[in-house]
């Protein structure tokens, strides 16, 4: 079949050639239309080149004066002189205003007079003492010694008087206790008789119950609350009394007197309770009972006991009060005498020192004190002159009067700290703000490019001079201020003009660079698509903005370094001059896989390319 076909073709060589030529022409025409820009994949490409990669951070702010100062008085008063005008140029130290100086000048004059007087006193002290002054100092010392002797006698006498008085009080108190214990046994014996007899201790209690009723309250109260309580006090105090003598310590005697007083008071209360019993029996009638004689006798004894015991209680209480009063007031009396003695001793010391210093001459304490007085007066004069100087207001720096407070005129009263005018320097700076993310990359000394909205054609350079460490938060955003010094000053710039600053944070020279749109990544690996083979010659003569390749691109893994908004540094994987794809155009739809229309200069076709913030070579 094939051989027959070949034979036929040989017979019709010319015809076949024409047919093949026609087919080829149609195919070429069809294929050409098929591969038009709209129907096939096309590419934007770029050439890998070396250049300076610059990374910067931009921000906006205002033009400021490099320094400014508020012109304000340090003291209040009337503005007697005013030497300023708007836009006036002034020099540092130039007099600008005067506040009424009359009171301050008067203070200076008075202080100078006081200082002169103190210096005269010092000169007199430095001169040798005269005979009269020396005699007066000797007499004053002798009088002080005499006063000291009297104070010592008074102090010793006061102490001895107190000791005698206190000793007598303890002696009288002990005597009262001794007298008391001659009578207390009788009182206790009468209390026992209220209960019964020696043969039968509660013999009378039975009679009381018959007369007053079973378990009469007065009897129970006497027995339970008074008699046994008094008896216990008596027995305890008696034992303590038997072991304490007149020559015992004051503390022991005081306790004895106090215990004796409590015992006597307890016995008196028991005697009163017993008398209440007999008063109740008397109201009931008792003469028909066999105990009537005993009741009459006991009632009389109780009355006698109560009559005699109260003076004893008063005597003991008086003894304690006397001791307490002496002990309480003695420290004050002794202290007064002691203070008088110390005062006399100090007076002697002072008079003696004064005499010695007078005799010693220049080394005396008085001279040193007066020297201090002179020094204080000199310091006061310096302060007075400083306060007078505060009434004169001078320019703190070279500059221009940028603003004067309204309605400020000569003769007005002003307060300290009130702003009269604002002085600014001619030298200008820029101040911008950056957020907390960008600020960490900024430091003093970094280069800056500045542009100005009001002067579009003006571009200045400068450097970062100050980075604020204090942030300012507003609506959840934290910003930091940056000050930028100009390399050159421009006279048309005004304060408060808007400025845009681009701060160079990093610059890398001779870096191998590709557009950011050329970088792709997959699985954490970065790569580019390279133009290879015969397409390289096509690229040399084609427009880089959009070309059609005959061969497939090759994926080339790369290691990337520094990058900015447009370009990325290639650390490894490419060489200078390699051609890479920066954007892919899909058929018909016009969609692209990358988005960059940037072109390098010198790579065929029209257009002008370059790196924004990047220099190529």
What do you see in this structure?
The protein is α+β, with helices and mostly antiparallel strands. About 50% of the residues lie in helices and about 25% in strands. The chain contains 11 helices and 23 strands. The strands form 5 sheets. Strands 2-11-15-13-12-16 form a 6-stranded antiparallel barrel. A 4-stranded antiparallel β-sheet has the order 3-10-8-5, with no helix packed on it. A hairpin with a 6-residue loop joins strand 12 (about 445-450) and strand 13. The protein starts with a helix and ends with a strand. Mean pLDDT is about 80; it is low at about 1-35 and about 595-610.
Helix content: 40-55%
Shape category: elongated
- Over the alpha carbons, how many angstroms does the gyration radius reach? 61 Å
Kindly state the number of beta strands.
23
The main sheet orders its strands as 2-11-15-13-12-16
* First-to-last CA distance: 67 Å
Number of helices: 11
Mean pLDDT: 81
In terms of DSSP E residues, the strand content is 15-25%
